[in-house]
Write a structure and sequence with these properties.
Blueprint lengths: L2 E5 L2 E4 L4 E8 L8 E6 L6 E6 L6 E3 L7 E6 L4 E6 L8 E7 L16 E2 L3 E6 L1
Parallel strand pairs: 2-11
Antiparallel strand pairs: 1-3, 3-8, 4-5, 4-9, 5-6, 7-8, 9-10, 9-11
């Protein structure tokens, strides 16, 4: 069974840091672009960051640029999201995703990803 499992979420004060992990199982994701998305209550799921399997190139949403960093460890079949200088508006359920392995560059839209984790809650208090 192919799975992505996120961990590392929790409650943190504004200005604090968290590191999310997303571990893949059931198959290797070393040749899949990976992404992080988030969904706040009453809002649509939005793009946070992605990372290419080809050369490790990353892309971050403007709202998190300079504060969040996506990375991957193919040997561990795991992708990470380091989140620093957290703000209350970062509060959301965070999801990791893997694409189908056929795209040349990683996408920013949810439909471009085929595998999804169950999500992990991040709550930032003011």
């Amino acid at each position: 069974q192919v799975q992505l499992v996120e961990s590392g979420g929790g409650l943190v004060q504004a200005g604090g840091s968290l590191r999310l992990s997303c571990a893949g199982s059931g198959r290797t994701f070393s040749r899949n672009h990976m992404g992080w998305f988030r969904q706040a209550p009453g809002k649509e799921r939005e793009f946070v960051a992605n990372i290419s399997w080809r050369d490790g190139t990353t892309l971050h949403a403007d709202s998190v640029k300079g504060r969040f960093t996506i990375s991957r460890d193919n040997a561990k079949n795991t992708v990470y999201l380091q989140m620093n200088s957290l703000k209350p508006e970062d509060t959301a359920v965070y999801y990791c995703a893997a694409d189908g392995g056929i795209r040349i560059i990683p996408g920013r839209a949810t439909f471009e990803y085929d595998y999804w984790g169950q999500g992990t809650q991040v709550t930032v208090s003011s």
